[in-house]
């Protein structure tokens, strides 16, 4: 007799759901990495401009150029503040998706464990049935020998 797990369709459904959540999680990780990368580049750009401005100040710098640099740094700070919020949101989404993925993994593991136990029980039942049949055959052979 062939083994058939009674919750096979549910297990395959749970695996499919887990795969879908995994794709969503990977997408959220990518978005987080992109936002964090953009924030890093903006912070690096601000640092480079401040260093450049400091070097220029030591050598003398016209007031108009100082204003230009300050306005540029102000705009960068606005962009940095925006991307800090974007990174925070992306991190929160990524963490939420990670929890969802963990839950789906646990569900799949539960069904796999049930399947494993059910299969072991099936094998034990099959072995018991085979043993019972062998005993019955032995008894019939013994009885046939006694009759002759």
TrEMBL record:
Query: Localized where?
Result: Cell membrane
UniProt topology in membrane: Peripheral membrane protein
Q: Which terms are listed as keywords in the entry?
A: Bacterial flagellum biogenesis, Bacterial flagellum protein export, Cell membrane, Cell projection, Chemotaxis, Cilium, Flagellum, Membrane, Protein transport, Transport
- What domain of life? Bacteria
- Signal sequence interval, chain numbering: none
Which Pfam families does the record cross-reference, listed alphabetically? FliJ
A single BP term in Gene Ontology: bacterial-type flagellum organization
Q: Where mainly found?
A: membrane
For this record, the Gene Ontology CC terms, alphabetical, are:
bacterial-type flagellum; plasma membrane
Could you say which protein family the record assigns here? Belongs to the FliJ family.
Recorded protein name is Flagellar FliJ protein
